[in-house]
Amino acid sequence: MAPDANKKNKALLHVGAFLDTTVIYETNQVKNAAGLQENDCNDTSGCVTEEEPSLECVLQPRLLTDFSYVENPVRCSLRCQGTTKHLACNGKSAVFLQDSLATSSSSSSSNDEFAILPQADGSVLLRNTKTQQYLCSSTKGSVYASETGCDGMEQWIMTTNNDTSKERSYAVLSSLVSQRVLTCSGNTIHAALPEDINICNPKRRQTISWSLEFTSGELCFMSLPLMNKQVRCNLIGELSLSTNFQGWEAWRFSETWQHDNVRISPWAHSELFLASNEDGVVSCCTKEESAIQGSSTIWNVQKAPNGLYGVVIKAVVPTSSTSTATTGSRVLRYDCHQQCFCTIPDTALLLDESCVWDLESLHRQTYYLVTADNARRLEGAKRGITTRGYPGRLITEEWKIEPVPGSPKGIVRLYSNARQQYLVSDQDGEVSLRPHSEPSERDGSDHWVMEEREDGIVVRAYQTKRVLVAPDKGPVSTVEPGTIVHGNTRWRLEPKTPRQVSKEKLQGVGGAVAVGIIGTVATPLLIGAIGIGSIGVAGQVAIGSIRAVEALNTVTQVTLSSSQLMIGDSSSTFLSSADSTSRLVGSAGNDGGKNKTRPFCSWRSW
């Protein structure tokens, strides 16, 4: 057995002595389906290998249109069990505990927020999102932060207990190199040898147990179909309904350790969470305010019962008679008469359309089709189908991906939001736009297939098999496969999203004025440059950087989500050495994952 494998197996055995645990990061080394190149560093170079931070676009294979919008990598803060303090870095080498500062905002990092970066050998890196330093442990037990993180000192094995009888779960972190366990003693952080820890002492056991509080999640619009409006949280945290699909209407669904429950926070605010108390009062407040008010920021999302079409969002509210939260004790509702949000008891007789919600991904299935070299974007201009390379994004460059009803999976139409027509191609290679009601509906010329390649995706006309090409000069056309062309036949998909605007960005603007400028915040956010772009086909199912929890035996990917951390199989405490690099514990690779309610925008396929 290789030395590295010995180190890893020893670490697993040592950590297994502390908790009924499951290794939650065990992956194959596979190619990045999002189009990112593999790091050239090898195991002996001591270099850090990681995936670039980005927002990943994930497709739930069971329903073609449900591309979810999930922040990647997973971000969280680490709280030592038994305390209210979190692990933090100061920008130098010190690692210490402090009161929580981490927020749910991707635009304002704090020094106690870490990105979890899974590695191909089953370990993870923990990188501070503010200082960009890695959490490291020396062979002598010192814990420090480093920007370079070499010689494997920055690699950790993360395990979690999966005792569903407990209200919360905790993780244990052990160094892959030194086999020492991350420990907190007062405000001091160090890595202790397993034999030096008395796990029979509950207080001592707490010093090695860490709670992961996630600050990233799935981004959705939360709509009320009854009113055909979206839930909005304005500049000062007030809730209302809106007809817009912009930054103020976007919400983040972040996983918690309370078994399938989530926190729901407005995307434009870093410190606010949707909350409800046992009297049914719903508001947006901080965690501290919710504790004072007796409110809960924990929610559970389920498919609506009794033939209702949508989801119900249930508040996990502790009652005065017990200290334990009861899942789904109250259901989120919009009172049309009082024009306010509330929660009502979870009684089937009371549920109606005012309790049913639709969750739609942040980009609303709209993309910019960008050439693989990032030079130009497909445009449905008045003069015809062409490409545009100037800065900025225009509505003429927006394309909505729609499935073709009754056709094989993976066949889509490309709908121009600006022209309200579909992209079509004839047998001679001419590409144009036609309304859906014209003959293109019958001849299949508006049917397209997207095929994954290492250097991008190929957009192919389904009927003629011709490939969409962006020539160096002239209009866009399709060519026969294998044709030598002066242009680009590889593309990326760049999701169209509203711009995130936080209260801090607008604090210099008067409240009424700031709320009034909401119409200006929906300019597209450029994320294509950081590797989000590609979408491909595996087994005739369109995919895009699929998370293992959604893969359903389609593809394995070294891209994990916070929802995966909640679905470990407690029956398999650790993998044997033969399996230690061959499967991902907690994935739904064989459709056996416990969590069937992810992603949220795919609720139709639950």
UniProtKB/TrEMBL annotation:
<feature type="compositionally biased region" description="Basic and acidic residues">
    <location>
        <begin position="431"/>
        <end position="445"/>
    </location>
</feature>
<dbReference type="InterPro" id="IPR008996">
    <property type="entry name" value="IL1/FGF"/>
</dbReference>
<feature type="region of interest" description="Disordered">
    <location>
        <begin position="426"/>
        <end position="445"/>
    </location>
</feature>
<protein>
    <submittedName>
        <fullName>Uncharacterized protein</fullName>
    </submittedName>
</protein>
